[in-house]
């Protein structure tokens, strides 16, 4: 059972910017959907 849970977390795709689609570094307690580059150009 534990292996199934671990496999689930390994297969989650990386977080992507909603604006440009670039891969974002995920951070704890961060819920933004756009990267720093896109958020600074708004």
UniProtKB/TrEMBL annotation:
One Pfam family for this entry, by name?
Answer: YhfH
Q: Which organism is it from?
A: Jeotgalibacillus soli
Superkingdom of the organism of origin: Bacteria
> What is this protein identified as?
YhfH family protein
Q: What is the lineage of its organism?
A: Bacteria, Bacillati, Bacillota, Bacilli, Bacillales
């Amino acid at each position: 059972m534990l292996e199934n849970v671990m496999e689930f977390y390994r297969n989650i795709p990386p977080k992507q910017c909603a604006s440009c689609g670039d891969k974002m570094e995920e951070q704890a307690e961060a819920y933004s959907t756009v990267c720093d580059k896109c958020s600074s150009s708004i």
